[in-house]
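thread from #wetlab-drylab

HS: before we spend reagent money on co-crystallization trials with inosinic acid, can we at least see a predicted complex? here's what I'd submit
DV: go for it
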Amino acid sequence: MNYRIEKLIDEREVSEGIKSLAESINRDYRGESIRLVCILKGGVFFMTELAKHLSSEVTMDFMSVSSYGAGTESSGVVKIIKDLDESIEGENVLVVEDIVDTGNTLSYLMDLLRDRNPKTIKLCTLLDKPSRRTRDIKADYVAFTIPDKFVVGYGLDYDQKHRNLPYIGVVEFND
Ligand code: IMP
Ligand code: MG
């Protein structure tokens, strides 16, 4: 399919947004240690950039999940492809995601992680698409709220491509 990518949030805006998010996290955690849990693969660019601006003692772990079922919409049941390496019991967990769309993936994942008895657990997302939400889930930290468009870049993919774009762009299909 033919498509082009229109810039939505430029590189400088993205990095300013992440920096100011880090400042609110720093205020809220006040030096308490944080276990960043990155949801692969989309959360990688965001997490590494965010982590550089955090003043707490930070440790990182990674998790890879996929939605059960075919189609472009997540179903609400997620399969763990790669689980965390370390226990999160007693940790201040901050889940780092690229985007909250319907909320299916995160709603399942947050419940699953909550059952592992972290001291605290919060959700941090680069992008929020609230217009598509079907689950009652709200991120604690959101860098950018975006309209109902399919976006790529800064970790987000279309068919596994364009994750490496340093900005956020909207995929516009040519008809
Ligand atoms: P949810 O379960 O519907 O919230 O889906 C979240 C996942 O869908 C994200 O982690 C992304 O992998 C993917 N996703 C949702 N919207 C977009 C988008 O606009 N661009 C790229 N991936 C997206
Ligand atoms: Mg994802």
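DV: The chain has one domain: 11-146.
HS: ok that's useful, forwarding to the group
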